[in-house]
């Protein structure tokens, strides 16, 4: 009862805690809703086929995903015959898919999966809505493109083609004859079954019939059939969501801890009175927890529905940004809402823990103290931790020149974190000189004198306000500067790897078809993936088909495979066929981990596309292709990859800045409210309300400025270590990019919030105006 009464009568003191928890719970609820909605799903094109057969797995790739091989034509025939032995299986339908895209339309990420055989339309429950099925090559059924009898111009791995539309369907994609689809696809890895009977018993019977030739999947287990390209997109989105949840929880703990610590400091006399009245340290701790718990529950009950309600609005932008596959939608997830409320409560109690222990140590004699000055701005523990962090950060920066190249960037980041921590801990030491320097030019001003003495008297208060600004500005400078510096250096390095001055690149397509490549003067690489057999398992490797090239491995691939020059390796191609080739060369500058003759790759992978052509002459016009300089091509690749990095970066910075805003606003709001007697004394001494506002505004700007200055200095110092690492790795000079715009923007935001937070308590108290 006492705790709830204190919360009701001092709710303003808990406003920062309430907002921080509500925001944290909203972030957790929203991101968890998106994450749970983004779990792998059975592909839509298999919705009418409850039982599916997947080709065998021969190992796992670098992402821990199974490496699924294709069936050979002989295996496919044998498996189909075995499955038809069960009278309950009414249809055995292979699903070969291939790249097809309408000319003039940009790829939305689905073109590589858009082509199918007509029989597979039944797996999705799609039907003819007009016309007839395709019967010969060059005929197609599609839901887009025109009425039966018209033609549609498309791009395929072979090049531009004109198909006759023989029918229309209610499903997405392009459907050609089954034979044509088999000839265009990179093998068959999935067979759909239509069944008449109990799905579970049919599943068990089908698995017995095919044995080791594949895995039978039914119901939700069909999610394993989701294409790898789609799963990778989900994985990228999941990383951002996990980072947001982690940062949200951490920042909530930080804000709650700082708020509770400030509250405990302002309530020294009250807590001392409780101790003098007989309250034990345990009772004081339980009081702090009891005050935080109802705030956390109330904030959670408001924040969780808010986050879950916003999640569906973010689904579209996430698809547009490539963080989720096309068709993704956020659905209601009760576990996300309930879990977020529980997380908010646990996190809030964890944040209150440090303050609760400190409050329990308040002596009964504290009830008799009424001094505003801080006797010890720096405790021994704070000194020790600050100096140790500074020494460790400086040591890492000093040792970077002697470290291995691959360790330097990590060391630079570690040094930055240690130095930022040291700056936050040692901020009270720097505040005095900085305040005296900043107020020096106005030494004769009464306002400047009050500001100077007020900040020097309340060093801890200023440090608590400056710390979140310091960390935010420092991290903003470091992260944005590091990304910009590395991107600039990567562009220089990648351009040097492309000997051609001009390249032919895809234009709104996932790659170049053979027709576009065939007429170009220069060298092209056909991208595919092969499984290199070792006993009963295989290792997936990215391979490039280059005209006239010998079989070549990079040193890393050769080490993984245990292969050497002259040794034979066994390849399982995209179409499932197996052959043996001899390694002719090991080259660190090879175009891919495995380089193979182009004609051999094309024979086994009719759906492979060319990433680019390094031109040695004038480019020839081709559909879905464009010519550009090597530098522009590299920059586009960097920009494409950098978009995701920048997105991650700015989302995390925005979250950090948001929590910093809460911390700064709450700290100053509470601190200014607690200083009402001081401001009333100023008014009685003759100061006008405008002068009081100038004092509070100046103090707020000083706090934000000190934090921004220290944070920017540490961030810039750490960036020099990162640049040194990049220069050593590339063997050339790299310009240091300081993100002035981002740093000034974050600083300005913190300054505006600080000024507002200090002005509100002054303007809301009529007593101060008299």
SSE order and pairing:
Layout: H1 2-9, H2 15-37, E1 51-54, E2 57-60, E3 66-68, H3 73-83, E4 89-94, E5 97-98, E6 100-102, E7 115-117, E8 128-131, E9 139-142, E10 151-156, E11 160-169, E12 174-176, H4 178-184, E13 190-195, H5 199-210, E14 215-218, H6 228-266, H7 268-276, H8 281-320, H9 334-360, H10 380-399, H11 405-439, H12 446-457, H13 459-496, E15 502-506, H14 514-518, E16 522-534, E17 537-546, E18 552-553, H15 555-561, E19 568-572, E20 578-582, E21 585-586, E22 594-597, H16 598-604, E23 609-615, E24 625-629, H17 630-674, H18 676-684, H19 689-730, H20 740-764
Parallel strand pairs: 7-12, 9-11, 17-22, 18-21
Antiparallel strand pairs: 1-13, 1-14, 2-3, 4-13, 5-7, 6-10, 8-11, 9-12, 10-11, 15-23, 15-24, 16-17, 16-19, 16-23, 18-22, 19-20
**Fraction of residues in helices?**
40-55%
Gross morphology is elongated
Number of strands: 24
Average pLDDT figure: 82
Task: Indicate how many domains the architecture comprises.
Answer: 4
Largest sheet descriptor:
10 strands, mixed
Beta-strand portion reads: 15-25%
Low confidence ranges = 766-770
**Rg (C-alpha, Å):** 33 Å
SS element count, helices: 20
Structural class: alpha+beta
Distance between the termini: 37 Å
Membrane topology: Multi-pass membrane protein
Keywords: Cell membrane, Membrane, Transmembrane, Transmembrane helix
Main location: membrane
GO molecular function, one term: transmembrane transporter activity
